[in-house]
Amino acid sequence: MKQLPPLNALRVFEAAARHLSFTKAAEELHVTPGAVSQQIKALEDFLQTPVFRRHKRALLLTDEAQASLPILREGFDKLVEAGEILAKKADAGRLTVSVAPSFASKWLVPRLDRFQEAHPDIDVWVSADMNVVDFAVDDVDIAIRYGPGQYPGLVMEHLMAEKIVPVCSPQLLTGENPIKTPADLIHHTLLHDSGNDKDPSCPTWPMWLKAAGVDHKAGDRGLKFNQSSLVIEAAVAGKGVALAKSALALADLEAARLVIPFDLTTPTEFSYYIVHPPSKSSSPAVKAFKAWVAKEAAESVDAADAQEAAA
């Protein structure tokens, strides 16, 4: 085997070449500029040729160094991939799934027992967070994302579409001000989902009421929540009427804890997607989870359609 250049020096060189700055490379690597300079000198001593040249106070790569960069970066990617392969045996029985908190609590977690029954050798770790996971940094195998379907560099599969439906407790269909038409909503508290989904097609109450032909002067008033699951729980408790994501409200609709008072649904432009790095494509746990969750999603869509048809 040929003698390898010092790997730490190569790592420092890649950062310095990307930034064309020893100072910025030092900030990224959490070392001093002097330490970066020493590593570059060690690499140049090993290669017996310079890799940088200075021109009018600017730091430039030599032609040979510039030509080597794509190969070097590919080499680092291969090293990462090799490390993942070596670690596969230790993590073969573990699958970490990243998902938004409301989707986890209202849709994924209630179904996980079926996955565990089918795959008792796989331990599922659910990481519930509104922040989008960075697969290059975070220890996550696969994610379910709600968004526009633009995830460059990742393997992506459409899971299911979403739509917004009005929901409330069955108790609100009777009583002093029973809900029979959208106009009856002026007598009830509106529950607002202020979550950070960044979905421009998801209607607010003022938008929905206007589309339904209701002149509601206080359409933006009511109770506001930063999680979709909390909006649904408030509706179950009879605190008011909510605009809910159909998939998240499905279990409560099937259990008759919620009802759809009128058939006025709004499809969203965003959908749910399964995403993971290409390096995870061969993972048996990832393959098993993808097949299982796709089946669950198809059944969920059919069940939601049935609930809306019965409304």
What this model shows, in words?
With 311 residues, the chain is α/β, with parallel strands linked by helices. It has three domains: 7-88, Winged helix-like DNA-binding domain superfamily/Winged helix DNA-binding domain (Arc Repressor Mutant, subunit A, Orthogonal Bundle); 94-159 and 271-304, Periplasmic binding protein-like II (D-Maltodextrin-Binding Protein, domain 2, 3-Layer(aba) Sandwich); 161-268, 3-Layer(aba) Sandwich (D-Maltodextrin-Binding Protein, domain 2). 42% of the residues lie in helices and 20% in strands. The chain has ten helices and ten strands. It has helices spanning 7-19, 22-29, 33-47, 63-91, 101-108, 112-118, 205-211, 228-236, 246-254, 284-310; strands at residues 52-55, 58-61, 94-99, 123-128, 142-147, 155-167, 190-193, 223-225, 241-245, 266-276. The strands form two sheets. Strands 4-3-5-10-6-9-7-8 form an eight-stranded mixed sheet. It has a two-stranded antiparallel ribbon with strand order 1-2. α1 crosses α3, α1 crosses α4 (63-91) and α2 crosses α3. The mean pLDDT is 90.
What's a concise summary of this model?
With about 300 residues, this protein is α/β, with parallel strands linked by helices.
Helix and strand topology:
Layout (H helix, E strand, L loop, with lengths): L6 H13 L2 H8 L3 H15 L4 E4 L2 E4 L1 H29 L2 E6 L1 H8 L3 H7 L4 E6 L13 E6 L7 E13 L22 E4 L11 H7 L11 E3 L2 H9 L4 E5 H9 L11 E11 L7 H27 L1
Parallel strand pairs: 3-4, 3-5, 7-8, 7-9
Antiparallel strand pairs: 1-2, 5-10, 6-9, 6-10
